[in-house]
């Protein structure tokens, strides 16, 4: 099947660069009525990161319950390592599974994990300090969320990789919006509830209740998305391309699948390397150092909340900039991603350097820049990467990029421990 780069345009609904068949007619691409498909993919992106954001935003409560545990860093390592393992299995056996099933199973696992936390708090922990049985169960639930994240994130980003670039931008912007949502909830609950055991408990339960509601909404939205004409159009294009490849090469099993997979990995490896280094840098600093290692006599316990909110807001800004300007120079985007390594010595200076650099203004500016660059370059590389392969392989290319992303998260979570050495 001849695949070429073409421009699809339909009013204000589609104006993108996409690998589509030569014989397709861009004028017949269905319109995304009321931007419903965009809204759905934005919501899906928000949904799969909301559980993680709920756990790290409820860190005040978990730290209160389990004072002898480094909650932030343990949660981060468990979540990322389990998610990485999950994604490795998904990539290895993608040809034997269906993204539609994986995503729905992932959302159900999210639901089970999120429901367990408030139920355990009501029936077992009851706001009491030192109930470490609850801590170990919570860590296990974080691991279950890691499995769900691998299933959902890999599938949703993979699906978006098959679509015009605006839908990938919607997904990544949604991930940032989930962080902003939870941060706003954290600010409101801190302002409304007293910062005692009862108030922290109410706040944490609210985060999980909101996350449960979002998971239910995402299950509905995801199953509606496949019925939208614009999504069906691109799914049909993929099916045509896959069927013609099957006629030409046979079933993608065994040696042929491994060869195809390595070709895809080889094509997107530098995009993946850029994404990986972005998240190694980010997770080595945020949220661990931001919540545990910096202090303010003026802002006191509001300080980490303000920093987390600033990071999340600027991450959303960065992920929303690509519709205005998409850096199409791949070498420049990847180079800028590696350039973010400069944040490590800069944050080190903010922790151990001259007194001025340890004050609120330099730390806040650096945290916001960390979020802005994280958001923008993640969006750029995730948009461009899947477009470098043929349409029928765009889903697995997107999933491979998520594998790089989660590997970066896992390594960054481990590196974050070096700040306490």
Automatic annotation (TrEMBL):
<dbReference type="GO" id="GO:0005886">
    <property type="term" value="C:plasma membrane"/>
</dbReference>
<keyword id="KW-1133">Transmembrane helix</keyword>
<dbReference type="InterPro" id="IPR002259">
    <property type="entry name" value="Eqnu_transpt"/>
</dbReference>
<feature type="transmembrane region" description="Helical">
    <location>
        <begin position="302"/>
        <end position="326"/>
    </location>
</feature>
<feature type="transmembrane region" description="Helical">
    <location>
        <begin position="170"/>
        <end position="193"/>
    </location>
</feature>
<feature type="transmembrane region" description="Helical">
    <location>
        <begin position="74"/>
        <end position="93"/>
    </location>
</feature>
<keyword id="KW-0812">Transmembrane</keyword>
<feature type="transmembrane region" description="Helical">
    <location>
        <begin position="396"/>
        <end position="420"/>
    </location>
</feature>
<feature type="transmembrane region" description="Helical">
    <location>
        <begin position="268"/>
        <end position="290"/>
    </location>
</feature>
<feature type="transmembrane region" description="Helical">
    <location>
        <begin position="363"/>
        <end position="384"/>
    </location>
</feature>
<keyword id="KW-0813">Transport</keyword>
<dbReference type="GO" id="GO:0005337">
    <property type="term" value="F:nucleoside transmembrane transporter activity"/>
</dbReference>
<comment type="similarity">
    <text>Belongs to the SLC29A/ENT transporter (TC 2.A.57) family.</text>
</comment>
<dbReference type="Pfam" id="PF01733">
    <property type="entry name" value="Nucleoside_tran"/>
</dbReference>
<feature type="transmembrane region" description="Helical">
    <location>
        <begin position="136"/>
        <end position="158"/>
    </location>
</feature>
<feature type="transmembrane region" description="Helical">
    <location>
        <begin position="105"/>
        <end position="124"/>
    </location>
</feature>
<protein>
    <submittedName>
        <fullName>Nucleoside transporter</fullName>
    </submittedName>
</protein>
<keyword id="KW-0472">Membrane</keyword>
<feature type="transmembrane region" description="Helical">
    <location>
        <begin position="338"/>
        <end position="357"/>
    </location>
</feature>
<feature type="transmembrane region" description="Helical">
    <location>
        <begin position="34"/>
        <end position="54"/>
    </location>
</feature>
<feature type="transmembrane region" description="Helical">
    <location>
        <begin position="205"/>
        <end position="225"/>
    </location>
</feature>
